[in-house]
Structures are given as structure tokens and as C-alpha cells.
Amino acid sequence: MNDDKMKAVIRSKYGPPEVLTLSEVKIPVPKDNELLINIKASAVTNSDIFIRGSKISFPIIIPFRLMIGVFKPRKSIIGLVFSGIVKDTGSKIKRLSPGDEVYGMTGFNLSAYAEYTCVKEIDSTAGCVSIKPKNISFEEATSAVYGGALALQYMDLGNIKQNQKVLIYGASGTSGTIAVQYGKYLGANVTGVCSGKNIDFVKSLGADDVIDYTTTETLKAGTKFDFILDCAGHGPNGKKRTSQLKEECIKALTEKGKCVSIDDGALKLDSKRLDSLTKLIEDNKIRPIIDKIYPLEKIVEAHKYVEGGHKKGGVAIKI
Questions:
Q1: Is a pLDDT exceeding 90 seen at residue 285?
Q2: Are 171 and 210 in contact (CB under 8 A)?
Q3: Hey, what CATH topology would domain 148-261 get?
Q4: CATH of 5-146+266-318 given 3.40.50.300, 3.90.226.10, 3.90.180.10, 3.40.50.2000
Q5: Beta bridge partners of 74
Q6: Which pTM value belongs to this model?
């Protein structure tokens, strides 16, 4: 490979995993306000699945398609999440330096399925970046940044207090696994909802109780929740997930209780939130979970696995 070339996964149209192909493209050059990141790991998130196939639910689809491309993709390289090492910096960069290990998201710039990408140092729709926790791998950091950003953003809407009853619906996914741990860190009594095969796993994260959604449709008499976080709002196919159990859980909210979903709005690209997440991880209050790690060359297989909807934690791409 030439010195000015890098490996990247590209696509020229929307479609199934097979539209993704490995290619060689030019290494980007950072602008004055950008960092050049040597990416060590990325991830396959539900957002990546949506963007690859453009399966976005109404009313989000109209503005979102305008951003990513109406008839064909504006960006040939997708990928929202990255962790890696700062390779070079523009002249106006102040917060980070070459050699720093970082993690973050690329926002509407996408482009994380590559060996290098450019990211602005200041938060914007084009991404956010922060120092990676020292006690986790690059692969684990990709699960932390995506699931952690979602979990903290929406859990904080609950203003959770000591001993309150919190339910995490979809407790075994990328955001759910971190939400369970964050709820315990905040002092809540946490109930997780997942499939039967993941009950012991969710309990190992600290959940006080676990409900198997595959066998349960009703709750015990008198069950009440102060806060519900729905981490399974939409599946990888973009369709809203509904069930009798979910409706029963919502009915069990206290008078002042609140239910929010990770699909209620856009994920905020916030480096300060990532700073908070880094501290929680380095203080061993939260540990990111990785289900599988695929090499970049197996990106199609990785997308198929995530699209199946049964992953436990995150799915990382080693670059």
C-alpha cells in the first residue's frame, strides 16, 4: 500500500451488508481545527445499520436523508464510532496532542470504517473526541463511547435518586449494559429486562432483579418504577419494538415516574460527557461489554450479526 493510501470500507449506494466493500483511498489531511486519528477500532452500531441501509423511521427520515443523502450516500465511508491514537494535529488544536489515545464519534462526517479519519477538536455535528480510559482496550472503548454516551444522556433525564426503582428495558445491549451499571452507581434499585439466556449476565452487571421478556407478559402485583429507560426502542431494522410486557412496565410507573427511550431524540455529541464516562470506567464503576470483535475485512459478516438483533454488549471492528 502507498504511503498516502489507507484501507477503508466504502459503499456507493444504500442496501444490505453486501454493499460494503474493502478498498484503498487517500489518507485525509487535517484542517487547522482538526485532528488526524489513526483508528485502532470501530464498531457496528444500530446507527451504522440504519445509515448503511437508510432504514430510518418517519419523521426522522426526511431531515436525516437530507443530511446523509436522499438518493445515494453523501459519504462513501460510514462508521460512527472510533478509538485510536492522535497522529497529527492542525495549527489551531489546543486540547489534544499527537500520541494521545482517544475515543469518540464522527457525527455526520461518518468515516470511522477506515485506518484514518479527521475529527474536529470542538464538539459539533461533525463529532466529538475525548481521552480514552487507560484501563480498557481500543475495542472496549468503542462499546463504551456509543453505549455510554446513550446511557448517560438518557439516564440523566431521570434525575435518579438513592433507592429509587429503575427499569432498564433491553439490559443486555450496548447501552443497556452500561445503563444497568450506571443506575447502580447512582444508588438505584435496578431491574433489567432481557432474554432468558442473558439473565445471569445482566445480574453480573449489578441488576437487583431481571425479567425474561420471552416468558413474561405481566408484572408482580404492586410493582412500581420511578424511571424506565427503553434501550430497545427500535430494532436494527428500524421498526419500533412493542410488547405487552413493555406496556405493562409503562403502566407500572409511579405518579411522577418517567419513561424515556434512547430513540427519543438525537444522540448528543458531547466530549464532556465522554470525560465523565472515562472517569467512571477508570474508577471501575462501569465496564464496557464486547460481544464479538471482527477484523475490518469481515465488516459484512459483522453487519449481518448486529442486524440479527441478538448481540450482548457491543460489536467491535479491529482496524
A1: yes
A2: yes
A3: Rossmann fold (3.40.50)
A4: 3.90.180.10
A5: none
A6: 0.91
